């Protein structure tokens, strides 16, 4: 079937057909424009007969198209399936026409409870038809669908946040005490890393019971109180979902070891080579261990992509998939608003069990411990892993529909340098929706490079790489760090640059992910072999003594720094011992100090989160203006509202840099002014850009090292808009 874009024939008045008739068998037979034209119509809807016609998503099951003229754009949607196909479908129309992000329902064949739909997520039932009037994302803001797009997702390791019972471990009640703070910085979505019962060999990513709370964090009652508190503040809570593996202490694994017929196939087993004397193949996992461990109880090897105490679940077993859905349902029933799915790259392995080839890097690194020494052709990013993500997405869609819940978020974690593989988790097309947020780790990779000379250019390369590759139907996301990568502040060429990075995180288009404590510029705390007893992240030991200090992720997981008064920064009481030592910087870098100071990282962060709610930042356009070794600048705009963000990345001692933005923006007039909206904390109050509201001329904008600035352009709107548009 081919439908080319053409002017919709006025006389056909497809939309004049009473919508009930779209529900009829006639509509189910519609597969072409000609068929539409023959449908009955009603003159009262003549307004829809104007304008152009363009097909949207057309499949055997769905017929959808746009009608538009200069003022308005409509999306007409007809689900042609019959009652025998009761499956709910969701389609993604985002990015198909203009910058529209949502649609107001102006007519529908069925009773709609919602007034508007987000275009990333158009739900459809068999036989349903409706007309949406499209509008920009920021218009008629519908929190129930969009909350995750505008939000900052705040990652919290509960153990490291706030201890309420003086055992040195943060807990759920402690987190409840800190909700005021989290809300005060404008964060609306909290993501908790695993809080389930666990032997805690991998910070809870080794789960021994998926449907309970580890006693060190509290009880299920505590959890329910937390959910209620979060929701009463109009905030959301998402949990880590770890589908790839369990702890070896999980009852399923214990039963599998005993050859219990109900559980024999819950994990992945192999006899091994050479009568069991050799491992099945050469697979090496990301935690520095071979992926196979011999279990004498079964006289077989079990697979583990991560630690040997984290056996991989057999995700080709339907019973296991059912168990996982039961787990998702359990937490959804308690009110959680979505999940962050762990390690989705690693879900499925090729069942031919072929060896993996060495990579180009193998000559420089030890292939017995380093994951990058192999091309993971057999054990990562298998097509079935993408399919599982889509399956869970669909499960959440059905759950939210059946239970009248707001949109349920699905975030996925897939570390990969190959950007296409990361993008695939979004779902390859508009009908097969996958992850909502396939986490963008590019900034964290680039911070690892540590090449100060090339810093600015490398940053530009990574930002552009993401922007160029993100599918049009996907919503972007930005992330500066996580529990797996060192603290962003410690990895920047200069700690002062953190403010500029807040601007990148919060003012570029997309969801922002923030790791707890980064809002106060917390730094890494080094762990050394002089005190091996301090190290909790035992994975580091797999790489040998030489690498422990570099590899331990404890550095970035230290307790949150609240105050300078009490010995442990207010994380726990003076008489307790924190489970992980605090970073030395806590007396200067803590929430209390930064609240008191007139200017601080925290205050700037809060200000930028507020700014991010403005329409140019949510749903507006974005364009790079300048990227050199020293400066990165971009604009965000919507209609006449234009913001310029400039970040000077040179380290101290470098000459100040003066730039002519009038020229760069190709502005026709000689004078162009900008008003200071936000500035990095290191800009002196006495500088011409030192106060919010100051007006400066943009033909000579001077920034010192590590200074960053947000300006609102004051211009003849028309002229500047033309410059931007012409350049598109
Ligand atoms: C990814 C998590 O982010 C990491 O911390 C953990 O060690 C592995 N998955 C294994 O669960």
From TrEMBL:
Q: Name one Pfam family in it.
A: Alpha-amylase
GO biological process terms, semicolon-separated = carbohydrate metabolic process
Spell out the InterPro entries in the cross-references.
Answer: GH (IPR017853), GH13_cat_dom (IPR006047), O16G_dom_2 (IPR045857)
Report domain Glycosyl hydrolase family 13 catalytic positions.
Answer: 155-557
Q: Which PANTHER family match?
A: ALPHA-AMYLASE FAMILY MEMBER, NEUTRAL AND BASIC AMINO ACID TRANSPORT PROTEIN RBAT
> Under which name does UniProt file this protein?
Glycosyl hydrolase family 13 catalytic domain-containing protein
Q: What is the lineage of its organism?
A: Eukaryota, Metazoa, Spiralia, Gnathifera, Rotifera
